[in-house]
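Lab meeting, action items carried over

1. Structure of the two-component assembly. Owner: GW. Status: complete.
Input record:
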Amino acid sequence: MEKILANNRKIWEKAFVASRLRDADFSTMSGIALQPVYGEENSEYPGQFPYTRGPHASMYRSKLWTMRMFAGFGTAVDTNHRFKEIIRAGGDGLSTAFDMPTLLGLDSNDPMSEGEVGRCGVAVDSLADMEDLYSDLDVSALTTSMTINSPAAVILAMFVAQAEKRGIHRSELGGTLQNDILKEYQAQKEFVFPPRQAMRLVRDTIAFTNAQMPKWNSISISGYHIREAGSTAVEELAFTLANGFAYIELGLQAGLKIDEFAPRLSFFFNAHIDFFEEIAKYRAARRIWARWMRDRYGAHDERSMKLRFHTQTAGVSLTAQQPENNIVRTAIEALAGVLGGTQSLHTNSMDEALALPTEKAVRIALRTQQIIAHETNVAHVADPLGGSWYVEALTDEIERQAEVIFAEINEMGSGSMLDGVIKGIEDNYFQGRIADSAYKLEVEFGKGKRIVVGVNQFLEGNEDDSIDTLEITSADEERQLKRLDHVLRSRNQAQVDEALAKLGREAADPTVNLMPSLIDAVSTYATLGEIMSRLVGVFGRHVEVPSI
Amino acid sequence: MAKVGLDGHDRGVKIVARLLRDAGYEVIYTGLFQTPDSVAAAAVDEDVDVVGLSMLSGAHMMLVPKVVQKLKDRGVDIPVVVGGIIPKKDIERLRQVGVSEVLTPGANAQEVVAVIERAISNHRMGAPVERI
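Predicted assembly:
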């Protein structure tokens, strides 16, 4: 840990006293008054560089993490209902899951979309679907996250257009666009364009939101998917932050000043089942980011240095066998996220390994967060594990191992993290390491060296498989096809053609920011597939070289 | 081993491919976003003994029968094994359209290899299993 000279506690106190607190009684259940944070005179405190213990002096005493449940299935109308159920049950932020065709920029009537529409998320083909998706939801009061990557700029354009159509100006919109294309090549595999061309769209969204949407997080730099694909905790952390450094360099190369756009980059980590390792991982993440922003990239504004993140509990840790056990796993993982100081949290449902979640399963997952928030009192004290010999040692070690990976990537990029990450993608560095780690873990499970309850031990109960699951049927697909057909027949085709032509011309000019043209195009009800197709015509299509 | 359709989750298919390779099989992985046609073409070109499909997106009832059909259209009789997120009620339906075996979550390496061997040997109706 850094040697700190002044009386940090006094400095922290000053910041804490200036914070607005929630109206709650911050004592234990038995009435013992709790300090907002524990430490010594000169230990590090939350809200102090390098923010190991949290970005804010008052942490959850001012504001709990956002309970942001990821949702989406069927048509926009179906998902709009699910959003409202979640809000009624106490969720306080929206998070949108799109179906596979939408994630890959295909319309529901594309030949490749057959059988896939609405199955893994909500189908969005045009602005009409986005209008239905957020219908009667106050997107100026609720923040909205959208898990979309290759078509992120188009979906953002649609989100802005639907809001402005009902009188909410883009500058009032708060939320997050995942828009983290680098991890697609590494892990989630929802790529469309080749990496360098795809980065141009990321640049355009950062510049656009920076200028016109001050409450909007332009990217959710993600480790969740990297971890789900099989990486270790250190790899999840290091690959994510390396991607973050790459986006910083992208913004700087685009002529932005670091303190203008870095404050609106956000992160997204996994909360896996190894409890203490996860908590240490989040603490190391904050510390590393702060140091790199200040020392490597010259940030001055502390908001550029404060890593803020959303957490999702690990889908990959959940089992198809004895699914009720997943409620327990999710609760433990959620607790790790909270003790690690997350700003936002999604908890998986118990039926995660079987299907998209039922309403009941989602409710239990949300209640899990509410129990942690309101019954356990863990949120009364910031970074409660700070000072633990174990957690501090683990934090330091994870940081050390991550720095080894940064050095490798930096070397691959001859001093540029952006070049290093792109080269790493081209050379299968990330994908190979992830596959190796995944295989190593599988071999350990196979040998019984690692136990997963219900899978390789404690199997009694597996035969009882009586939980209800959500079913998406071809009827959902048919409904969406009818909706799409209606849009295609009601719009002004000449306007669509003109907008697409303009988009194509501008896409070919790398100096042009495509967001305004995208907003124009979506407003004519040009479809996602038509727009993406036009862009593929200019940018090309990425084909992954298969490897195991 | 193939990923057919839009599902990009490839952790499982890569692990199974390695498990089989380590068990002595020669494994060809097609990569992502294959169509039923491209899977059948690859199976014929590579003269495989079995086709393994990884399906996690819920699109299996649409895509798997098409793979089986495309193989038939090409005049080859190669057993198809499906693994992934397959609801219990669909397992029998898949068998009815010609799938040899279905592997669901939790199958370990031994089970995977055993299922592949069984698919091949059942198909040859008792002929000895040859490994490349």
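2. GW to write a short summary for the group page. Key points so far: Residues 126-132 of chain B have pLDDT under 50 and may be disordered. The longest strand of chain B covers residues 51-55.
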